[in-house]
Design goal:
- By secondary structure, the chain is α+β, with helices and mostly antiparallel strands.
- The chain contains three helices and four strands, in the order αβββαβα.
- It has a four-stranded mixed beta sheet with strand order 1-2-4-3, with helices on both faces.
């Protein structure tokens, strides 16, 4: 993942406070539109897995899926925070979740989400 996709602490706080939330298969996504390139943060708490090795593995899978998916989506701009709630994600599941989230963000109308994800 490129450094341009990282979010600062200020951006993370602003996104957590003002962003719109939605969930897909054990992942809560918080999105705040902005004029900058799409940035991502993946949060996995100790409640999901006490082992830091497992938490970092989940984060790496989501970051890699994000890197592969975002190559085609240069028009999406904003801050995205992913909060993972399940202890195991395969790479295929993380790609599927991110594709759903990115497609939902790109279909956003008038600054608000128009329907919940199933």
């Amino acid at each position: 993942m490129f450094k341009s996709n990282h979010l600062s602490r200020i951006e993370i706080k602003k996104t957590l406070k003002n962003g719109e939330r939605f969930s897909v298969k054990g992942v809560t996504a918080i999105f705040l539109p902005s004029n900058e390139k799409l940035g991502i943060v993946v949060i996995v708490s100790k409640k999901v897995s006490p082992s830091s090795v497992n938490r970092n593995k989940i984060k790496r899978k989501f970051r890699e899926a994000f890197r592969l998916i975002i190559k085609d989506k240069e028009n999406i701009k904003g801050n995205l925070i992913l909060i993972c709630h399940l202890p195991k994600y395969s790479f295929r599941e993380s790609v599927w979740c991110l594709r759903k989230i990115i497609s939902f963000i790109s279909k956003k109308k008038n600054g608000h989400f128009h329907k919940p994800l199933s």
